[in-house]
Amino acid sequence: MNMINNDFSCTLKGCLAELAVAYKFLKRGYYVSKPLDPSCPFDLVVTNKKGKNYLIDVKSISYRKKDKSVITRCLTTLQKQLKVRFYFTNINGLSARQIKNMKNDK
């Protein structure tokens, strides 16, 4: 039984995705913060050891029921102005993909 896709609310699924991504960054040696404002246009602030900050909007990978294709997402105008980056994740831990490469900035 796949509880994540069937039994969890969208809110809980999003919370689990954010925690999974925060864990991945913490494991890589980044500092991770969570904004206090629930209407904030990003989910996490990730900072490397040199002090460079990244604003991350976490998205759980979603698929269309009809043809199982991935549902794409677009940054809002405000997110673009703030240079927010998407981080897509599968909360089952099977895959994660980052839209902009941050490996070389660590």
Structural class: alpha+beta
N-to-C SSE string, H for helix and E for strand: HHEEEHEE
Extended strand count? 5
Give the amount of beta strand, in percent: 15-25%
Task: Please give the share of residues in helix.
Answer: 25-40%
Please state the second-level CATH architecture: 3-Layer(aba) Sandwich
The chain-level mean pLDDT equals: 82
Shape: globular
> In what order do the strands lie side by side in the largest sheet?
1-2-3-4-5
What structural keywords apply?
disordered N terminus, 106 residues, 26% helix, Trna Endonuclease, Chain: A, domain 1, globular, alpha+beta
Q: How would you describe the overall organization of this protein?
A:
By secondary structure, this protein is of the alpha+beta class. The chain has a single domain (3-105), classed as Trna Endonuclease, Chain: A, domain 1 (3-Layer(aba) Sandwich). The chain contains 3 helices and 5 strands. The protein has helices at 3-6, 10-27, 77-82, and strands at 31-33, 44-47, 53-60, 85-89, 96-98. A 5-stranded mixed sheet has the order 1-2-3-4-5. Strand 4 (85-89) and strand 5 form a beta hairpin. The chain is globular, with a radius of gyration of 14 Å. The model is unreliable at 1-6 and 93-97 (pLDDT under 50).
